[in-house]
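Go through this pair.

…
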Amino acid sequence: MNTNEFERIVSGICQAAGLEVIRLQFRNSDLGIAEADVFVSCTDAKAVYGKMRVAEKALTRHFAEGIRGGYYDAAIGYDDVPAGQAMLQFDCFPFSLDPAPAPALADTHAAVQAMGLPAVGQRVRLTEDVAVENWSLPCDGLEGEVIASTMDEIAVKLDRNCPDLAAWNNCILWNPTNEPAESGYEGALARFWRQVELISPSPRP
């Protein structure tokens, strides 16, 4: 199955089950069988577990196969799951995933430009580790506020104090100088949108 179609189906069924989907990860197991990790907002583990079972049954009906779901969060020892989230793992799908087709270069440029720059004041959450100089900042659900947004630099000031970012006033920066020469502004902008998700869609008043 095409990865994009698989994502659309799994995300739609999870949301229909009442789950607040934050992000999804897909892969083929060592046996070549599709697996899905669905990260969801979680303030009540019991309620989320119940909704997972609803999604599990709906996926089983959709794919006519006994899909299996598993619940994981930091409280039961899975430290890779950010606080306030749970990871729901679904497997036993009756197929392998095909890689999503890479978009044409012109389409990629258009998509990045359509995203545009974030607005100063928007709140964001990191969704993957971010490279800073020669080390990597663990994501861990860090949140912050956009304090600068130009073609030269996007800066997010983190809520949580990170001593290793003292030289940058506790900010993470995305700018063309951190990208390959051929990527430039579009590369920095694409990386920003890949590494964060909006918490607030517009600046705070």
